[in-house]
Amino acid sequence: MNVSRLWQNRLFARTVGAAYASAIERPAAARVFGRVLFGTDVDRIYQAMDVVAELPDGSAVLDVPCGGGITVARLVPGRRVRYVAMDISAGMLDHARRRLRPEQRDTVEFVEASIEAIPFADDEFDLCVSFNGLHCLPDPAAAIREIARCLKPGGRLVGDFATRGQVRRADAYMVLMRASGTFGPGGTLDDARRWFTEAGLTVDELECSGAITHFAVHN
């Protein structure tokens, strides 16, 4: 099944996509789900998302795939940054738009596009965030190469993804998700290190919390 085509389906976005967005937006429920299924501390994901609050004025950030827009909420009110929220799913972009606070509407750009063909120039962004997305992609390595192309020299990529080979019950869940077409092939911790290094990125952090790998790399 074509993973990208499934996520582009509006009915899928309104059902499965919306259910995911609703879960991650409720920290209490997400903590239980994360611990039981992935053996992970979900609070580490929320803390990592705060990287967008640290951006100085004049920065440019790419959030891809932005999903339901939970990371956008971490923007500091009044901060003058360029924030691009990109996703292949028009339905998820609709959900993200609805999350915007009134003062964010002139700051956030929404772009419907594939992460494997990012429609921006080389060296355009100071930061890219990619939370809970790489395991949903048909070709994570190609996505990482595209992100690296768009990062300025010294630009950072921060995020996480569900990782094979860490927690048995999570592995079983990911098999089901791949069979349904919701997840792509994903990868192991070693795969992730290879994706980053082959894209020319330097690994600053690559660490598993249960079956979730947290990463911070730079160009």
Please provide a written account of the structure.
It is a single chain. This protein is of the alpha/beta class. It has one domain: Rossmann fold, CATH 3.40.50. The protein is about 40% helix and about 20% strand. It has eight helices and seven strands; from the N terminus they run ααααββαββαβααββ. The protein has helices at about 5-10, 10-25, 25-40, 45-50, 90-100, 140-150, 170-180, 190-200, and strands spanning about 60-65, 80-85, 110, 125-130, 150-160, 200-210, 210-219. α2 crosses α5 and α6 (about 140-150) runs parallel beside α8 (about 190-200). This is Methyltransferase type 11 domain-containing protein. Pfam families: Methyltransf_11.
Number of strands: 7
Biggest sheet: strands, sense, closure?
Answer: 7 strands, mixed
The number of helical elements comes to: 8
Helix content: 25-40%
Helix-strand topology string = HHHHEEHEEHEHHEE
- Structural class of the secondary elements? alpha/beta
CATH structural class: Alpha Beta
The CATH topology, please?
Rossmann fold
| Main sheet: strand order | 3-2-1-4-5-7-6
The rough form would be described as: globular
CATH level-4 homologous superfamily: Vaccinia Virus protein VP39
Radius of gyration over all CA atoms, rounded:
16 Å
The CATH architecture can be given as: 3-Layer(aba) Sandwich
